[in-house]
Amino acid sequence: MTPLLEFALNAGVVVVAIAVVLCAWRLLAGPEVPDRILALDTLYMNMVALIILIDIRWDNELLFEAALMVAMMGFVSTVALARYLTRGDVIE
Amino acid sequence: MRELLENLAAIMILLASFFLLVGAIGLARFPDFYMRLHAPTKASTLGVGGVLIASMMVTFAHGRPGVAELLITLFVFVTAPVSANLMAQAALHLRLRSKAPIPADAIPQDRKL
Fold this sequence. Notes:
The complex is a heterodimer of chains A (92) and B (113). With 92 residues, chain A is mainly alpha-helical.
């Protein structure tokens, strides 16, 4: 692992963590319900990126399944919450 | 070759984390839901795609072809517009107000059609 890659991984983890904190603030403070759903969706995306960065940092391939699961869960939960707000029911 | 790929992946990671940070700042700072929908759905998708492409570069530099990252990239790029569309539909259904200025050629609201 070259020093540039190591620096980029450390800086990337810090920057993505700041992004996660901003999304969590919007999740707690969002004035309307769609704001909170949007914050959750962005939080899931940032967590996928964070898991991948930590996976590159630890130099193994154990966490890709975890990232795939988080991405799928994020999409399904966003769709379910948006459908619930629109139709009042998830599955008709 | 290996060091070149790893340095390219490092630059890609820096760019991608910058885009993720831009998306999160837009989510936290914009005044309105419809404006807030812009920042994460575009910038954060690009950021996640960049991180996953960097991960593919690193695994390729270590001699292992990475297919799982490509799967996650395709999944994120396909599902992000769908979920954004559904959230916009929910916001329109709840009749959230927009803070954007009314365009100059808009029909006045007090006129009966």
